[in-house]
Amino acid sequence: MDVILTGTGFPTVDPRRAGPGTMVRDGDVCLQFDAGRATTQRLVEAGCPPAELTALFITHHHYDHLLDVQDLLLSRWMSSGMGIHPLPVIAPIGPSQDFINRVLDIWAEDIAGRNRQLGTVGGPGTELVAFEASDVLTEVWRGGDLRVSAILVDHFPVVPAVAYRVDGPHGAVVISGDTAVCEAVETIATGARLLVHEVILDAVARANLGNPQVRYHANAVALGAMAARVQVPVLALTHLIPAPNTAEVQAAFREEIRRGGYRGQLVLGEDLATIRLDRQEVPQILTGP
Length: 289
Ligand SMILES: [Zn+2]
Ligand SMILES: [Zn+2]
Known about the structure:
Layout: E1 2-7, E2 21-26, E3 29-33, H1 39-45, E4 55-57, H2 69-79, E5 87-92, H3 95-102, H4 108-118, E6 126-131, E7 138-143, E8 146-152, E9 162-168, E10 171-175, H5 183-189, E11 194-200, H6 202-207, H7 212-215, H8 220-230, E12 234-241, H9 247-259, E13 265-268, E14 274-276, E15 284-286
Parallel strand pairs: 3-4, 4-5, 5-6, 10-11, 11-12, 12-13
Antiparallel strand pairs: 1-2, 1-14, 2-3, 7-8, 8-9, 9-10, 14-15
Bound molecules: zinc ion (2 copies).
The site of one zinc ion has 7 residues, from loops.
């Protein structure tokens, strides 16, 4: 099972970093978690073009995680001969569900026009599976050798926001979505081989204490402490605030995670970084596909 960071950015536009997203691939099963800016391009780079995607999972209703859903659906339709090839989308009941139901409305005229031109019918579509987000880990999808479960996290006031856990033949990966360090992720990361978690530097959080947006992200020192408690072998940081594009910021992330007490393998997320869970005892860190 390969876990590929398709996007490690956040709302700030950064040419090196696509918007948030993580892909889990096991054989022919290719699952995408969130679809921030330029996710579709990253999926192609990672060898999973939109037509081959098995399902899309949404963590919460923030635009940085959803901007590329349109491109993903339209490109899937175009590249699969404009047939009916709906994409299963799994989302918590709430605004993300409404967003998925309406995301293609603004393209109705273009879709109809292309159909008229080519004599095709239908259009890009989704098969929405909306689930009631709960503070108990609940299975939301199953396919191939993989099982995906969800749990509510703390991205208050954004409710619902969920983390996902993917269980496969070679262990589990937890994908935090956006959240402060919280008990829910700690619980479901126990026993996982890889934790993909969002993060904000403690130093940045402290300098912006008056900003409520700081509170709903994961403080790096607290995250290091949590990862140490659950003894997860690999911690991959994504949605890094600020972007670790200089040696100083990279060092600051490492220092703060270690200060929290984490001693396992630490991956400072770059787009297309890949972590492979297989028979080997220690997950392998690859730079990209
Ligand atoms: Zn975000
Ligand atoms: Zn968010």
